[in-house]
Amino acid sequence: ERKQLYRLRREPARTVDGIDIKLYANAESREDVAEAHALGSAGIGLYRTEFLFLQRNEVPDEEEQFRAYRDVVLGMTGRTVTIRTLDLGADKADRTGLVMSDEPNPALGVRGVRLSLSRQALFETQLRAIVRASGYGPVRVLVPMVSCREEVVAVRKLLKRVIRDLNSSGHEIADHIPLGAMIEVPAAAIALPSFIGAVDFLSVGTNDLVQYLLAADRNNEALADLYSPLHPAVMRLLHAIIRTAHMRGKPVAVCGEMAGDAVFTPLLLSLGLTEFSLHPATLLEVRKAVRECDLADLRKRSSALLRARDREAIERWMHS
Ligand code: PEP
Ligand code: MG
């Protein structure tokens, strides 16, 4: 069966009725990037930069970051690479002293873009490294933990300045570097129409979105049953995010674990999703699932999915 699956590495992620779905890869290591490339991913949809900052005593400088990002871009040979800016917080072990380690509630603390905006020099260094890597292939910048418009506007301003500086010092960089927001804070999802104009693309982080929407810690074993995307609130919110993005002509992917689990593929397609970002280990399984789906049929069934009243009803929908 693995062999059958492996044959799919050269096949398109195309539904039975002929619609192409984009399957990007999540990556954080050289191995992930090589595998994503070999398995025919559309590009990197989420490059997590945290690992560069963890398990060490000082922050990586611009040169080290630049080389790491450039290698990812070169490794993908012209396919799009989406680099997420630092998503550190007190929930991730850190020895560089960047993070406030004694926060009472790390998941609701100074993490993601909040940390970046509070450490402007550090953030600018990372943006410079990313922008320099754009000279080697298509790069997009993705910002984690966005909760309001002001944060996107602040990042855009900084990114513009970095681009201007690098241009004027003669660096070869891309003409256009799309800026995107992770949608993983419920407020950002609900208020999306008010700030979607400020971004070029979106990526839905269902790991955190489910955690914050259901007020259920993603790492708490005692809540493992409750912590599930199969909640009517999650269905409705995902549907609304995807619809808003498509109406405004902005690409939207789901990059949480949910996107990499083939049991959810028909459900996500039914909600209107056309772009997924997932770990390369599950890329072929999801591609196989996509190839077995009839998109027109699934879209017709979306109203029934949105009417499902509880988890059991959603599961019944999935198995019918
Ligand atoms: C998410 O929250 O769904 C996500 C992709 O980001 P992370 O798992 O790194 O928080
Ligand atoms: Mg997240």
Secondary-structure-based class equals alpha/beta
Number of strands: 8
As residue ranges, the low-confidence spans are: none
Order of helices and strands, N to C? HEHEHEHHEHEHHEHHEHEHHHH
Which percent band covers the strand fraction? Answer: 5-15%
What Rg, in angstroms, do the CA atoms define? 19 Å
Q: If you average the pLDDT, what whole number results?
A: 96
Catalogue the ligands: phosphoenolpyruvate, magnesium ion
Major sheet: 8 strands, parallel
Which outline best applies?
globular
Instruction: Output the strand order for the largest sheet.
Output: 7-6-5-4-3-2-1-8
Count every helix, treating DSSP H or I runs of 4 or more residues as helices: 15
Terminal Cα span: 25 Å
GO molecular function, one term: phosphoenolpyruvate-protein phosphotransferase activity
Organism: Luteimonas galliterrae
EC number: 2.7.3.9
Subcellular location: Cytoplasm
Descriptive account of the structure:
Its EC number is 2.7.3.9. It catalyses: L-histidyl-[protein] + phosphoenolpyruvate = N(pros)-phospho-L-histidyl-[protein] + pyruvate. Its main location: cytoplasm. The structure is a single chain. 43% of the residues lie in helices and 12% in strands. The model has no long low-confidence stretch (mean pLDDT 96). It is of the alpha/beta class and 320 residues long. The chain has helices at residues 2-7, 30-38, 62-75, 113-118, 120-133, 149-168, 186-190, 192-195, 206-213, 232-247, 265-270, 283-291, 295-300, 302-307, 311-319, and strands spanning 22-27, 43-48, 80-84, 139-143, 179-183, 201-204, 252-254, 275-278. The structure holds phosphoenolpyruvate (PEP) and magnesium ion (MG). Magnesium ion is lined by residues 144, 184, 205, 207-208.
